[in-house]
Amino acid sequence: MRVHSREVEKTVYRKLAERGVELEDIADIVLEMQLPYHPHLEFDTCMESVKAVLSKRELQHAILVGIELDVLAEQNALSEPLLSILREDEGLFGCDETLAIGSVYGYGSIALTTFGFLDKQKIGIIRKLDNKSYGKVNTFLDDLVAAIASSASSRIAHKQRDLEEKLLDARPDGEGQTAVQEEDKAGEFDPLLREAGENAAS
Amino acid sequence: MRVHSREVEKTVYRKLAERGVELEDIADIVLEMQLPYHPHLEFDTCMESVKAVLSKRELQHAILVGIELDVLAEQNALSEPLLSILREDEGLFGCDETLAIGSVYGYGSIALTTFGFLDKQKIGIIRKLDNKSYGKVNTFLDDLVAAIASSASSRIAHKQRDLEEKLLDARPDGEGQTAVQEEDKAGEFDPLLREAGENAAS
Amino acid sequence: MRVHSREVEKTVYRKLAERGVELEDIADIVLEMQLPYHPHLEFDTCMESVKAVLSKRELQHAILVGIELDVLAEQNALSEPLLSILREDEGLFGCDETLAIGSVYGYGSIALTTFGFLDKQKIGIIRKLDNKSYGKVNTFLDDLVAAIASSASSRIAHKQRDLEEKLLDARPDGEGQTAVQEEDKAGEFDPLLREAGENAAS
Amino acid sequence: MRVHSREVEKTVYRKLAERGVELEDIADIVLEMQLPYHPHLEFDTCMESVKAVLSKRELQHAILVGIELDVLAEQNALSEPLLSILREDEGLFGCDETLAIGSVYGYGSIALTTFGFLDKQKIGIIRKLDNKSYGKVNTFLDDLVAAIASSASSRIAHKQRDLEEKLLDARPDGEGQTAVQEEDKAGEFDPLLREAGENAAS
Questions:
Q1: Among A181, B135, D67, D116, which residue has the fewest nearby CB atoms (within 10 Å)?
Q2: Which residues on chain B place their C-beta less than 8 Å from a C-beta of chain C?
Q3: At what angle do helices C108-121 and C95-104 cross, to 10 degrees?
Q4: Domains in chain A with CATH codes
């Protein structure tokens, strides 16, 4: 019998929580990544974007697979030498990034470069997960969190543009506005962006 | 001044037409690729899916870049040795696939494997474009058409599943249905699928 | 303690054999894929190319991870709903392709399109693995075999070109040769190609 | 008539120089990226690695295409709206990253994450290229330089490991060494690494 998507999504939320990742932690990263480009961006918009990307099958499946491997490595329930490779988070092992990247692609090249940046800089919860002192194996999880955060960041960048253009279209003198002027007024767009956000998760 | 997305989309439609690619040709490929999985799939649903993927920035930009290079090669307006490489559609040149694939990733791994298949099998309009007797350079265009068709195919596969699950949820005995039974009833879903399709382009 | 690469490679060979995949089966696919382009290509050259791509870390790691997941699914040792998804080889599950594709990219866009083709057409051993009547879970393995075969195919295409150019350079009238003439003489290159092959695995 | 690889490679070197990119500038980035992991890494090893990755077809072709588009944009020789998009280096335009990334994949996931990092941080020559005050269009070039640098960095990481393992194998008590001890002795490996480097470009 086929597994229902609702079942998959519910498990994804539960597993992230069990492994110590709160959606708020991820939204924090998104806010930090996008604030330089959208100075009036609010936390709730980031949170909404995190939930929206978590509704995608490709990312849900990657999370299930990655967390499963982390947990099995923690329980010494994998065969060697894979077990040692995962427990050590061996530097040249790339399947964790590969799996994560597969789900990032859906949000374009901004998502991909943000992922690379987060993978190197390990901001916020990603750094905590990478810290072995927690006594856990998070070889896959830190990359998965980076994937969620970078996808959500890219989604905001694209949605923000869509919104700016819609507002531009609504002005009588719309076409004559320059990029600089639009930038200055970015703050005005936020209430609308939040509104758009509520409908964008589906 | 920043270019408006509407301008980009309009140009994409015009350029495809100028290069001899009708959206109907692409929808034909989509229908051929997805019919084995969804026997009641209709042409209009495929057409709608083609338009939906054409609304994505990543793909629009790839189309603008690829067609530009084809046209410039045709006019001998590129420097050597790039000019010869494009005019010969040199077998080991991979930038055409790379550019096209970048926009395919957004629709998941089904899109990617469908792209690989179309790139080898060259179905319908893709074969015509690959045929040098037209006296044109279509080094990038055939891959771009394969990218549109494979993205639209994958989008249908995912939407069809969403729809099946929604119907399943609506039944009183929904959860007890087996995969085989769902398959048998796939035809019943089509009217709803078309309806869903009309709202999915945004 | 860090795992030695030699240990990883040895395990990869052993696991493939345990799962019923002989390197000869993969070389058969490579031969079938490349014969149309290099009519004098020999089986031994394909076999050498399979071994060469199997020496790459990225692919080795993907094989270890993929086979581990297949085996654990067979033993019902994964949590739900991942277990059901893998046991059913659920059509919209894409982590198997994603993992495999990550290792294919190293051999360029020819490798990627060949992978897509093999994933759809399921030639030779790939079809056998896909056949559920074997009572095994090969959700990841069939894609991994397609990854090995497509990487090895692309490697041959690139090496063949290198060789042709070296031979062309060695001729007094080298630069005047056309592509057609080179194609006709492709058979003459094979002994040299095999020789080159022996040194290329490292 | 088919273009000879030698011709392609020569043009790549010439075009990079014409656009103000010295290979030394790229080697500097590689050194900065890899020094934290290999404290005794020398500039010459980085330079050799840059040349090695520049010998790959996939990357060479990407460089030819990208620089061609930059130059044509500078000369206003592209059609609209592509011309404006390239001249503005429009933030949501991703074909530059896509083209560059296609050639990065060949060096594994380390290369990909390094690329993402460089794309955001814009170290050294990449920052200079990104600086519009030069009066040039470098929309593609900065990403191409990041692609060369990240590929060369990843290649060093992999070769360094190969070398460490060879040295480990040569010791009578080799298998008992821990990762920490290897790290401490990394400096000793450098002369050999350089030697290996000289043979690795082909």
A1: B135
A2: 37, 88, 91-92, 94, 97-98, 101, 108-110, 112-117, 119-121, 157-158, 161, 179
A3: 150
A4: 5-153 (1.10.3760.10)
